[in-house]
Hints:
mainly alpha, about 70% helix, elongated
Amino acid sequence: xxxxxxxxxxxxxxxxxxxxxxxxxxxxxxxxxxxxxxxxxxxxxxxxxxxxxxxxxxxxxxxxxxxxxxxxxxxxxxxxxxxxxxxxxxxxxx
Length: 94
């Protein structure tokens, strides 16, 4: 019994071998690499920045409160469409 405990402790003290990609709970590699996720996130952030820049230009050019409201509504629609595209991209089979 002491031998089995000693072997167990020895096995637990060994360093874990590193792999090139993280593992999921069941031990399989995740379907999307970190680099692809990073690229997708950067595209999403750049799209959000573009929406805000367009909104900024629209508000700057607005002549009255109605025009500002229209700018805000356009920003909301663009943001919602971006969010829906991102959600669809995440759920799409790879």
